[in-house]
């Protein structure tokens, strides 16, 4: 899915958790889903109800900084 696996691995390392787990502070839960219906703009990260499309490791890092 256009690099989604690498992105999940990156998020797991950054957050210190595995898919299905929540960070100790309760702020982030990492979930792997089969489809968010956004094939043309994958990989996609969903935070609450907002889609973040065409994500890369660098964009994920910037997003995590914004969410702090």
Question: How would you summarize this macromolecular structure in one to three sentences?
Answer:
With 68 residues, the chain is of the alpha+beta class. Helices cover 34% and strands 9% of the residues. A two-stranded antiparallel ribbon has the order 1-2.
Q: Given the C-alpha coordinates, what overall shape results?
A: globular
Percent helix, as a range, is 25-40%
Radius of gyration: 11 Å
Q: Which structural class should the secondary elements be placed in? A: alpha+beta
> Total number of helical segments?
2
- Order of strands in the sheet with the most strands? 1-2
Largest sheet: 2 strands, antiparallel
Order of helices and strands: HEEH
Low-confidence blocks of residues: none
Distance between the termini: 28 Å
Average pLDDT over all residues: 93
Number of strands: 2
Q: What share of the residues does DSSP label as strand, in percent?
A: 5-15%
Could you characterize what this model shows?
It is built from 2 helices and 2 strands, in the order αββα. It has helices spanning 4-15, 57-67; strands spanning 45-47, 50-52. A two-stranded antiparallel ribbon has the order 1-2. The radius of gyration is 11 Å and the shape is globular.
Task: Set down the secondary structure blueprint.
Elements: H1 4-15, E1 45-47, E2 50-52, H2 57-67
Antiparallel strand pairs: 1-2
Please give a handful of descriptors for the protein shown:
68 residues; alpha+beta; two-stranded antiparallel sheet; 2 helices; 2 strands; 34% helix
């Amino acid at each position: 899915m256009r690099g989604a696996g690498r992105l999940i691995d990156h998020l797991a390392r950054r957050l210190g958790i595995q898919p299905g787990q929540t960070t100790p502070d309760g702020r982030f839960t990492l979930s792997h889903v089969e489809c968010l219906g956004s094939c043309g703009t994958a990989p996609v990260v969903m935070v609450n109800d907002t889609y973040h499309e065409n994500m890369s490791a660098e964009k994920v890092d910037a997003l995590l900084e914004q969410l702090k």
